[in-house]
Design goal:
CATH architecture of the largest domain: 3-Layer(aba) Sandwich
Radius of gyration: 22 Å
Number of domains: 2
Strand content: 25-35%
Structural class: alpha+beta
Shape: globular
CATH class of the largest domain: Alpha Beta
Largest sheet: 15 strands, mixed
Helix content: 25-40%
Length: 421
Amino acid sequence: MEKMKACLLEERKVSRWGLKEVGLTYQAHRSFSLVNAQHWKAVIGDANLFLSPSYLTAVDLGHPQSMTFILFYKDDEPAGVGVFHEICFISGDLSSHVNTTGGVEFVGRTFKSATSRYSMLVCGNPHCTGEHGYYFKSEIDAHVAMQALCAAANALTLTMRAQKKRAMGILIKDFYPDAFDHAEELKKCGFHVFQVDNQNRMQLADHWSVLDDYLNDLNTKFRTKVKSVLNKSKDVHIREWHLEDMQKNAQLLQVLYRAVYDRADFAMEPMSMEFLLHLKMQLKERMLVQVFELQEEVVGFQIGIFNGSELEAFAVGIDYAQNQQHSIYGRMLVEFIQMALNKKRSSIAFGRTAGEIKSTFGAFPVKMRVAARHPGFFRNMMLTPFFRNVHPADEPQRYPFKGEVALRVEHEQKIWNNEID
């Protein structure tokens, strides 16, 4: 009986309401411990740490009974994976992201007031940006893959309803520009596709070995800005924390993290310290925790996760009372660059927020889209005007580099945004 409860869905044909079969089957479990790990690895390999068994085990342990792990099969061979979260969104002010013209103002205002705190079924990572919610083998085309995800989402919402739980929406996130056509496939399943705030990325030049190499490629204006950050934070001491340090100071880390989280107008449920502790246990040296101390008092921390050749700026916590005087946040951005250089990573994923500040240090914006749908047909139709008028934040981009590096960054930005002919 317990095993039946743990296995949320029986193995079944993947189909979507009103569409023909796509030739896949799937298995879904509420605990990653019940997933066939070998089959999962056969799909993922080393493609994405955020879909790896080690990462998902930590998520599962830190957020019990809120996850569904899905393995898709084609002819009894593993063909794809998907991870769904049942989470709570917290929206401070959705209207800032909505073009409130005509009747759309009423729809947006109603949606905001009725759902300032609401549950959603999310395929994707709630704690970082990027394509971390699903992965299919190359022989599975986008049309089949998206129909499979749609079918799984449909079945999950029906199961939630049977368990007296209700999802106010389904969200599949995030899509990079070269996968926008994948998102478009979801429109056939009733999803609304729209652009959200950009991801901020930074590409490190091959000849950068130490921080001075990076500084030398900044033009005078921005090199002065970065050196000003270093000067203002000269009294800040930075050191690495290990698992034992995190365990002893979990409450402090939680306070600093919530100081950042509570400032967000729109956010998913916060990370728990239990999750971060499990994550450190699982990832070990692939997760680096640094604390920022001022006169032996911790005034901030940051977490970097090494995902292949990329550094993910995963989480930060800040004592804002000390931030402006000692430029804590600016120093964190410098230290993420230093971290990537020390570990010989080629890029940094900085997340969505503070795009203008991050571009001052060398990050560039990458357009991102998501797909969302209300489970109810008529309510989903009513929300069409709202989703059509959701727009990303408009943040100015700075161009801090000079010479060949400036040209290379411009070229990289065009590649990531799929703007190369």
